[in-house]
Amino acid sequence: MGRKFTAIVLKDLQLELRSKETWVAMVAFALMVALVFGIAVNPLRVALASVFPGVLWVAYLFAGMLGVGRGFEQEARDDALTGLMVAPGDRLAIFLAKLTVAFVFMFTMEWLVLPFMVVLLGEPVAGGVLPLLAVTLALGTVGFVGVGTLFAAMAANTRAGSVLLPVLLVPFSVPVLILAAEATGGVLGHVVPAVDPWPWLHALMAYDVVFLGLPLVLYEFIWEV
Amino acid sequence: MTKPKARVWTGTWWLWLMAAIWVVALYLNFIYTPDARYLLSSERIFYVHMGSATAMTFVYGVTFVASIGYLWRRGLAWDRWAAASAEVGTLLTTMVLVSGIIWGRTAWGSWWTWDPTITTTLILWVLFLGYLLLRDWTDDRERRARYAAVLAIVAFFLVPLDYYAVYFLKSIHPAVITTHGVNLAPSMVLAMLVSMVAFLFLAAAWILIRLRLLTAEDHLVEIQDRLRTPLDSL
Fold this sequence. Notes:
The structure holds two protein chains of two kinds. Chain A is built from eight helices and no strands.
């Protein structure tokens, strides 16, 4: 279980270090969202800083959808997923490994994109809020990745799976989007009137518990042969 | 050779009962009940809205139970129940949304508000459109049933969470049925209840029609498979 998990995580990270496909695509995509938003909305009429948390999470979630789908797409070639499944060890290890890799990709992407967003949308970020911001980003990402990995495993086996994945994931991202964006606004502390981020973070934790738990119960049904 | 096992009940006498209930419901909605004090006759949309919303809740309940039933017992009949009820549920959700939007325009002066109840209903609608797409785009019959069941179960847990996530916004949706009783005139309560029953019957009729069609489809595929491999069926 533990060895299989570590092996798959290391394999995926090594693959990514060599090919550099996924994270480049994710970061580029998130930046495009910020760029398009900044251009489409007239910054003279709309204070970009006031919509900063929302735009940040829209960019993160769309880029996240790109990343979460990749994990199973690359296993589809030569039916590598079947190889992973018949390998000794619990199948839970495969699911947890894919979940972990998706989390690492998305979380790294978030920190790479953040400075650009801060500059482009003019939202000053004080160094003191960074620990709490990291907690917020981590909680939002966990909530997204849990159910995202479950659906990505399904989408990999359907026609037009790459189209289907966003359709399935958007309704599930609604709570993450609301809770994480509000919490981020509260953490950064530029929202008027001031928002206390903790109730939002607690709600986000509750969401994470439910939507990490459900996939762990249900993933077995995805991979029956 | 095995004969197709599942048969769908084809009795029609209860359709006449449904027709009678609908006549009563329409009479109550449009003639018996008075105009509302401020909303005037636009209030009558409420009976359609409430009726389809009640039926929607029950029908999605059927989807959830049938999905669990499929993963537990593995009969395609469970899956057909889930598929039929999800389709009818999506249709009823459309009716809830459309009737609500029209009513909101006359009552609130705007087509749409981001109220928790309304937003959650919209999310529910998108969710089940995705569900129907997933069914449509999964080719393997058995896999389609499994995936759809997993999605329906996860969706069941999402809806209340969505509601509370949006709840932090101020709610303007009227609460007609509260813990302190029903905020309606007695004649309107009667019209509302009969409407609910009428819509429940309608939903049941639609589900049975879809079930018969889906069962026929499954049998057709079964027969095609049998013709393709004649040796297996000996």
